[in-house]
Amino acid sequence: MENQQPEYFQDFMPENVCFGCGIHNPHGLQIKSYWEGEEAVCKWVSEEKYHGWPNLLNGGILATLIDCHCMGSAMAHAYKLEGRPLDSMPEYRYATGTLNVRYLKPTPNDQTIELRARVSEVKNRKTVFYCEVFANGLKTAEADVVAIRVYDSSQPPAENAFK
Known about the structure:
six-stranded antiparallel sheet; single chain; mainly beta
């Protein structure tokens, strides 16, 4: 079997200019998330400009990685539940309801960062995630994240939070 590139959730988020996950933001973090079984995975390589202290990743950047990884994963999970491809309609968008990050150890800024998120609950427009962050196999942070569906292209504009 050939190695093929995963289907990245962010490639199916039109008009996305978000700093963390927007494919249309050339100055952003440009994260890429994909399914690995029931986990949403993101592998990201930092740059020196994102350090907090020398050789350590800035905590706000780490929170942004977790946040954006989970928002894209919420969209992909909704499509998965409906048994449809990421490029199908209706289009959904999610925004952060809550983000509770626990920083366990300093995260190196010179290693690949791996995020692994699992859905723990879905209720109406809300999807809850547990996300873990690893650097060189060591867990450096974990988070509970609530994603809220704020846009559904099949609904009238008054029903959506933004567009």
